[in-house]
Design goal:
- This protein is an alpha+beta fold.
- The chain has one domain: Ubiquitin-like (UB roll).
- It has 3 helices and 5 strands, in the order βαβααβββ.
- The chain has a 5-stranded mixed beta sheet with strand order 2-1-5-3-4, covered by helices on one side.
- It starts with a strand and ends in a 5-residue tail after the last strand.
Length: about 90
């Protein structure tokens, strides 16, 4: 099963503990997570369905570069980490 984790900064606003799900690709995994956690989609995706500029996703430690389609295939034991950039000084 694929494990997806969310940053602590996001969890301050939305309950979204790690999940373990079966999904063939990143888009399918995110859709399953959105079905579980109401409001998560708006934090991660813009109106076109692409990743927001302040969100980065890693699959097994490698940055996802396809930010629009999110079609990256996932091995059955992948680890997906969602990170959110912080700003301020």
């Amino acid at each position: 099963m694929v494990r997806i984790t969310f940053p602590p900064v996001l969890q301050r606003h939305l309950r979204c503990p790690p999940l373990e799900l079966d999904a063939p690709d990143l888009r399918a995994l995110l859709d399953l997570a959105f079905a579980r956690y109401e409001g998560l989609r708006g934090y991660l995706l813009d109106d076109t369905g692409a990743l927001r500029h302040h969100v980065t996703i890693f699959v097994d430690g490698v940055v996802v570069t396809d930010r629009r389609r999110l079609a990256q295939r996932l091995p059955p034991t992948a680890r997906v980490d969602v990170l959110q950039a912080l700003s301020g000084g």
